[in-house]
Design brief:
about 35% strand; Nuclear Transport Factor 2, Chain: A; about 130 residues; alpha+beta
């Protein structure tokens, strides 16, 4: 069982930023319920296996992008949390921004909601290398 901050961080980096399917699946088994759901603007995906699959599809569209949190996660009563992030090539300005919102049950992710937050500030700093 993990705390919300850990679940948010591992979901962002270990699932959606991970290019290796075996590693993505291993992390998913550790942090997600088998019946977890992922809701994003383009679809709804049910079950851990389907989330691992769609995370791979998403990752393949931009395999070198880095996801960088804009601030620490926000947590509600150790049951839900969110983290705002930007994504893009290391050393360059971010290309897009989003917010992951999760609901946890018994220390694992039960649901993930992804909101795209529009374009990041074009005058903002480059992502770390």
């Amino acid at each position: 069982m993990a705390d919300i901050e850990t679940l948010l961080e591992r979901n962002l980096h270990g699932i959606f930023a991970e290019g290796d399917e075996a590693l993505r699946r291993k992390v998913a088994e550790e942090i997600m319920h088998n019946d977890a759901v992922f809701v994003e603007p383009h679809g709804v995906y049910s079950g851990r296996d389907e989330i691992v699959r769609i995370a791979g599809v998403i990752r393949a569209t931009h395999p070198t992008f880095r996801y960088t949190p804009l601030a620490g996660p926000e947590v509600l009563h150790d049951q839900a949390g969110r983290v705002k992030w930007v994504a893009g090539e290391p050393g360059k300005r971010p290309v897009y921004a989003g917010t992951d919102f999760i609901v946890a049950r018994d220390g694992k992710i039960a649901a993930i909601y992804l909101f795209f937050d529009g374009q990041p500030d074009p005058t903002g700093p480059a992502l770390p290398t």
